[in-house]
Amino acid sequence: MTRGAGASSGRQVHKERTTRETSISVDLRVDGTGRVGVATGLPFFDHMISQLGRHGGFDLEVTAQGDLAVDAHHTVEDVGIVLGEALHEALGDKAGVTRYAEIAVPLDEALIEVALDLSGRPFLVYEIDPGAGGEAYPLGDPPFDPQLAEEFWRAFCTSSAITLHMSMRRGRNTHHILEASFKAVARALRDAVRVEGGGVPSTKGALG
Description:
Layout: E1 3-8, E2 12-18, E3 22-29, E4 36-39, H1 43-56, E5 59-66, H2 73-91, E6 100-107, E7 110-117, E8 123-127, H3 148-160, E9 163-170, H4 174-192
Parallel strand pairs: 4-5, 8-9
Antiparallel strand pairs: 1-2, 2-3, 3-5, 6-7, 7-9
Helix pairs in contact: 1-4, 2-3
């Protein structure tokens, strides 16, 4: 059984989702100050999700309980689903948003390029190789498999209905590659959700 609940006010939303595998709660305020609190049972993943809030300028609280004894996949994917749903709901009809954004973010030797569109059409291009310097190694304890980052972004894009292109120009250190990726998406989202006009930025009159 799946339970979902949401309550929004302005560009602020609370979302919950419970299945047999996970229980996720997200509080998101788009027009925030970068205050974050994340607890998923995966410390490295907590660190990555925190980057989205802090560098996106969002106020973000995420809690997750999942079947980590089986695998981290369910928890990571479901956080992506609920966080994406929260963003989609908080943005509403997207009236006045900038819509498009792109950025290149460095972290030491790693350089990640991101372009996104709040299009209402979910699509992910993920050209990130966390094992570019050799074998991608698990991070944190319990371990976070770097390959799960792609699963997170796919779930996030699908539920938020955004088009997201992520490309790695260079990088060797797995931690640096992934952290630069999350920071780059955060900064691009910060620009894309900014309100700069009064109408929906689409010739169709709607995004979605």
